[in-house]
Amino acid sequence: MIKKLIISGLLLGSLSACEGMNTAGMVDAASSLFQAATINDAEIQALAVQSQQQLDQQNTVADANSSYTKRLNNITRNLRSYNGKALDYKVYLNPEVNAFALPNGSIRVYSGLMDKMTDPELLFVIGHEVGHVMNGHSKSQARTNLLTLAARKAGAASGNSIVASLSGNEIGTLAHNLVNAQYSQSHELESDAYGLKILQENNYDKSHAVSALRKLGSGGGGFFSSHPDSAKRADRIEKM
Question: Domain Peptidase M48: where (predicted)?
Answer without folding.
Answer: 89-239
